[in-house]
Specification:
The chain is of the alpha/beta class. Its EC number is 1.2.1.41, 2.7.2.11.
Length: 758
């Protein structure tokens, strides 16, 4: 048993029914009993006279949704004073207008000012209206609400405290949402020297302390404190260096500078933090967040309960390693140091990593075996994903070869001059390649992706954040360890970071001030989710790999089955595998067509018929549900077209701009296809599987992009670079180039320096 004060506010068992406070945000979805505290700035309008009705309606909707999920919701609300102030001002103005009408000759009454309204009177006038508004709003969701008014003195009387506890439990049992507020019409001032002495006692002097006190009294799982700031900052919000604190731990107060309190209300951020820490020690998790921001207030409460990174989360459990924000900052600093190295030094790091992949083969395969066994035991991965997860000696050897290619080709990637212009005499301009900054690469079931992407980031001088799937945790861990060992050769170990915390992908995509480019590697659903979640950060990749092979009338019999077999069957789970086979209509019922069908059957490829193909058959395979399907397995769609022009139109309508192929011996037809298909990769008489960074001679790729800006197709080192402009002058000013100035623009193109022959 723990006592919280000499006159104990509550007796809290050390082991409670709902356990200790949650250690991680991801656990908040398990919160059963939740208190939502609405600050004055959240409930009131900007003029502090009246309620923010739209915002309040949105909060009620979110609370109702959570209540209807079976949670027990309680609201600690402000707003009575503001609502009462609005009503009393209206009454005073009405009264003045009546008196002015009766005494229109008395000019001294015409300019009668509204008197200063006493807060207790405003609270008395506004309390009933505020509750009536809550009642009306909750009724829309078939939820009943009940009002409870309390004062500090109520908590110093044992019997009253028991009565309050019993009332709240009974209301929750009946699925009623209690709406609690301090009785501001009669509330006495707080007792002197009784507020938050250590963490032993907390007096109710504002709704922050009331919410904390009730949360502990009711053994609440989660307390959500909504205010008019995003959360807790390490310095006053608005100051240049202010950073939002994602997780706040007891004892961190010394690192925080508190600003002034909100525009309305009794408590400032310091009061909120003290109340939050008191509730946290009582076993209740706390999140302080912004309830006024128009873009997030409509889902802030539900986002918090879902475990999303919103506001400041208070936790008693400090993680063993750095936060993801700290990792991103370390990656940026490490990337800048990496970019400053000589090209030979960056290449040396990559060569070292290639050697480690073969030297430490046994340890890597042992870790990968653990991942495979866990995945098979849990049965959570489909066969294609299990294949992607698997590493082998040959895969590691291929990886090492690819990394050595990257090292050899990266000698002049960073700092390469791509344009030189003489602007005027002694004023020369250069455009040079530079790293993009910090890359976030998110990949699933592909541990071999980690060394590939790391090598490309090292070669291009970028900092790197890696987020791998938990199904490859053991493999990723050892591969990252080896990467950092290689980086240590030149003291840039921190340039590549592996995110091991419980960060949700959606939360990572919001770090727009820390991450410059997101590259997803995984399923089309993963890519779509990331593209949707990314806030202000460009995403490079492709959401789908719907690749086509068009068999023309002039196709070679020998080439057709080889190219189709390789495109579909060599690795059906790959994004560059064939998904739709387009056949010219004249080839139907020919020996070539029969050979294609026989080969697919032998390879056990399930065929889906397109609408036109099905119309030609008496007994057809199952008709395709959608011509925009990426199967990722031994399945494909067959459709019929009347010409190369129709094949191009079909690809543009149903394709994903990834990789498309024509098989023909007619050069004119082939060139038409190559020039008119608007995809990242377009091939003639070659398998779709050649769409790969390693096969293109890039050494490896961070992914295949179907975007139309920056980089397209397999993205190697060049796709991870941008440029900056360097201008070298000698006391040049723009005014010298005015109409009657002393200088003239030359804009002469200058020869580029010779590239490294190696």
């Amino acid at each position: 048993i723990r006592c919280w004060s000499n006159i104990p506010f509550i007796t809290v068992p050390l082991s409670r029914a709902h356990g200790k406070s949650f250690a991680h945000r991801s656990e908040l979805k398990h919160a059963k009993r939740i208190v939502v505290k609405l600050g004055s700035a959240v409930v009131t309008r900007g003029d502090e006279c009246g309620l923010a009705l739209g915002r309040l309606a949105s909060i009620v909707e979110q609370v109702s949704m959570l209540q209807n999920q079976g949670r027990e919701m309680m609201i600690v609300t402000s707003g009575a004073v503001a609502f009462g102030k609005q009503r009393l001002r209206h009454e005073i103005l009405l009264s003045q207008s009546v008196r002015q009408a009766l005494h229109s000759g008395q000019s001294q009454l015409k300019d009668m000012a509204i008197p200063v309204l006493e807060a207790r009177a405003c609270a008395a006038a506004g309390q009933s209206g505020l509750m009536a508004l809550y009642e009306a709003m909750f009724t829309q969701y078939s939820i009943c609400a009940a009002q409870i008014l309390v004062t500090n003195l109520d908590f110093h009387d044992e019997q009253k405290r028991r009565n309050l506890n019993g009332t709240l439990h009974e209301l929750l049992r009946m699925n009623i949402v209690p709406i609690i507020n301090t009785n501001d019409a009669v509330v006495p001032p707080p007792e002197p020297n009784s507020d938050l002495q250590g963490v032993n006692v907390i007096s109710v002097k504002d709704n922050d302390s009331l919410a904390a006190r009730l949360a502990v009294e009711m053994k609440t799982d989660l307390l959500i404190v909504l205010s008019d700031v995003e959360g807790l900052f390490d310095s006053p919000p608005g100051s240049d260096d202010a950073k939002l604190i994602d997780i706040f731990y007891p004892g961190d107060q010394q690192s925080v500078t508190f600003g002034t309190k909100s525009r309305v209300g009794m408590g400032g951020m310091e009061a909120k933090v003290k109340a939050a820490l008191w509730a946290l020690q009582g076993g209740t998790s706390v999140v302080i967040a912004n309830g006024t921001h128009p873009k997030i207030s409509g889902h802030v409460i539900t986002d918090i309960v879902e475990g999303k990174k919103v506001g400041t989360f208070f936790s008693e459990v400090k993680p063993a390693g750095p936060t993801v924000e700290q990792q991103a900052e370390m990656a940026r600093a490490g990337g800048r140091t990496l970019a400053a190295l000589q090209p030979e030094q960056r290449a040396e790091i990559i060569y070292r990593l290639a050697d480690l992949l073969t030297d430490q083969r046994e340890e890597i395969l042992l870790a990968n075996k653990k991942d495979l066994e866990e995945a098979e035991n849990k049965g959570r991965l489909a066969l294609p994903l299990l294949k992607r997860l698997s590493l082998s000696t040959s895969k590691l050897n291929s990886l090492a070869i690819g990394l050595r290619q990257i090292a050899a080709s990266s000698q002049d990637s960073v700092g390469r001059v791509v344009r030189r212009t003489r602007i005027a005499k002694d004023l020369d301009l250069e455009q040079v390649t530079v790293p993009i900054g910090v890359l976030l690469v998110i990949f699933e079931s592909r541990p071999d992706c980690l060394p590939q992407v790391s090598a490309l980031a090292i070669a291009s001088g970028n900092g790197l954040l890696l987020k791998g799937g938990k199904e490859a945790a053991h493999s990723n861990q050892i591969l990252h360890h080896l990467t950092q060992e290689a980086l240590s050769v030149h003291g840039v170990r921190d340039a590549v970071q592996l995110v091991n915390t419980r960060e949700e992908v959606e939360d990572l995509c919001r770090l727009d001030k820390l991450i410059d480019l997101i590259i997803p590697r995984g399923s089309s659903q993963l890519v779509r989710n990331i593209q949707k979640a990314a806030k202000g950060i460009p995403v490079m990749g492709h959401s789908e790999g719907i690749c086509h092979v068009y068999v023309d009338t002039d196709a070679s019999v020998e080439k057709v089955t080889r190219i189709i077999r390789d495109s579909k069957c060599e690795y059906p789970a790959a994004c560059n595998a064939l998904e739709t086979l387009l056949i010219h209509r004249d080839l139907l019922r020919t020996p070539l067509f029969d050979q294609i069908i026989d080969m697919l059957r032998v390879e056990q490829v399930k065929i889906h018929a397109g609408p036109k193909f099905a119309s030609y058959l008496t007994f057809s395979p199952s008709e395709v549900k959608s011509l925009r399907t990426e199967y990722g397995d031994l399945e494909c769609c067959i459709e019929v077209v009347d010409s190369v022009q129709e094949a191009v139109e079909h690809i543009h309508k149903y394709g994903s701009s990834h990789t498309d192929v024509i098989i023909t011996e007619n050069e004119k037809t082939a060139e038409f296809f190559l020039q008119h298909v608007d995809s990242a990769c377009v091939f003639w008489n070659a398998s779709t599987r050649f769409s790969d960074g390693y096969r293109f001679g890039l050494g490896a790729e961070v992914g295949i992009s179907t975007s139309r800006i920056h980089a397209r197709g397999p993205v190697g080192i060049e796709g991870l670079l941008t440029t900056k402009w360097l201008l070298r002058g000698d006391n040049h000013v723009v005014s010298d180039f005015a109409e009657h100035g002393s200088m003239k623009y030359l804009h002469e193109s200058l020869p580029l320096p010779q590239r490294n022959a190696s």
